Amino acid sequence: MDVLKKCVDYSLARELRNESLYPYFRQIQSEQEPVVTIDGEKIIMLGSNNYLGLTSHPEVKEASAAAVLRYGTGCAGSRLLNGTLDIHVELEERLAAFMKVDAVLSFSTGYQVNLGVLSCLLGRHDTALLDQYDHASILDGVRLSFGRGLKFKHNDMKDLIGKLQQGNRSGGKLIVVDGVFSMEGDLANLPEIVAAKKQYDARLLVDDAHGLGVFGENGRGTAEHFGLEHEVDLTMGTFSKSLATVGGFIAGEAPVIEFIKHHARSQIFSAATPPGAAAAVIKALEIVEREPERRKRLWENTKFMKRELAGLGFDTGASESPVIPIAVGDDMTTFVMARRLHEEGVFANPIVAPAVPPGQAMIRTSYMATHERHHLEQALTALAKVGRELNVI
C-alpha cells in the first residue's frame, strides 16, 4: 500500500473548485478590518476573530515595528536555549499581572500551548475529561500524552460526573474545556464544572482563546465573567484573537508553570515568538485596559446581530458570544451559501465536519468592536437574501 495513495484519492477540494464553491484559503489583500479587499473588491468581514479591532491599531503596529528594528525579525532559536529576549520576559510578567496569576509561559502559537501543556501534564495513570466540542488542539494534546481521554457530552454535567466516576482512582483527573466554544459560540458551564471538580478532586484547565479580551469586567475571560478565577487551575489564552498577533500562553501557579517550562516539548523544541509579536501583545494589553469601551462596542454589535439574525428566522443556536453560528445542516448547501454570501459582498466561514458533528454544518459569523452599524445592516441584507434563496430561513 502506498502511504501517499490517500492524497491522490482525496477529491473534495477538487470537486468544490470544479463547482466554483471552494471556500478556503481566500486571499485577503488588506488589513483585518470590518471591510477587507479580495480580488480588488470590498467585502464585509464577518469571519475574523479580531474581536477588539486591534490588529490594525496604529499603536500596536508601531510597537511591533519598533521591536523588529531593535531585535530583528526572529530569535533564531528556542526559548530554552538562545531564543529568550528580555521582551519575552516582559510579556510574561505583563500577562501574569493582567491575569492576576503567579506566572505565565508564552508559546509560539495557541495550538502549541495545548499540545505542550496537556502532553506533559497527563501521566500514564491520569485521566482528562473533555467536552466533546473542545478544540482540536486539546484533543491532540491528550493524544500525545500517556494519559487517558474521556469525552463527555457538550455541556452535559450529568455525563461529566459519570465520566469523572470512571477515572482511574490511582491517577489524577484534569477537566479541560473551552471557555467559549469556537464554532458554537456558547460558554462552558463553569459554575457546575467547578462544583464537579471539587466533588471529585479534579483540576481544571480552561482554554479561553475566544474569551480573553471579550468576557469579564476587565477582559480576563470567562472565569472572570462567572466570578470563578480562583477556581480555575490553568488558563490557556491566545494572541491571535483579541491580542492582535500570533502566539499563546498558559497561566497558573508558579510551580506548575515552572514544570511546563521544562517539559512541554512544543515549547522546548520550537523557535521563540518573534519580537514584533511579543511587542504587539504588550501594547494590545495596554489598550485593552485603557479602552474598556471597545468591549462595550463589541457587545453592542453582538447583541444587535444576535437579535436581528433571530428576527430574520435564522437558527443561531445557544451562542452567548461574538461568535454567532447560522445553522444550515447540509454540507453542500453550506458551501453554496458561503459562495453566494461572498458574491453579495459578505465574507463568512463555512464550517463542516469534523469541526462540527456530521449533519450540523453551519455558517460561522463573528463580530468586531470596529464594525459600524451600516456594515452590519448591509451584511444582514445579504444574509436575508441568500438565506431565503437556499431555504435556510
Say what oligomer this is: single chain
Main beta sheet? 7 strands, mixed
Can you tell me the number of structural domains?
2
CATH topology of the largest domain: Aspartate Aminotransferase, domain 2
Strand order of the largest sheet: 3-9-8-7-6-4-5
Low-pLDDT residue intervals, each spanning 5 or more residues: none
CATH architectural type of the largest domain:
3-Layer(aba) Sandwich
Instruction: Write down the secondary-structure element order.
Output: HHEEHHEHEHEHEHEHEEHHHHEHEEEH
**Strand proportion:** 15-25%
> What is the strand tally?
13
Give the class-level CATH name of the largest domain: Alpha Beta
Q: In whole angstroms, how far apart are the ends?
A: 47 Å
Quick one: overall form?
A: globular
Please work out how many helical segments DSSP would assign: 15
- Class by helix and strand content? alpha/beta
Helix content: 40-55%
CATH level-4 homologous superfamily of the largest domain: Type I PLP-dependent aspartate aminotransferase-like (Major domain)
Instruction: Give the integer mean of the pLDDT values.
Output: 97
Specify Rg, calculated over alpha carbons: 21 Å
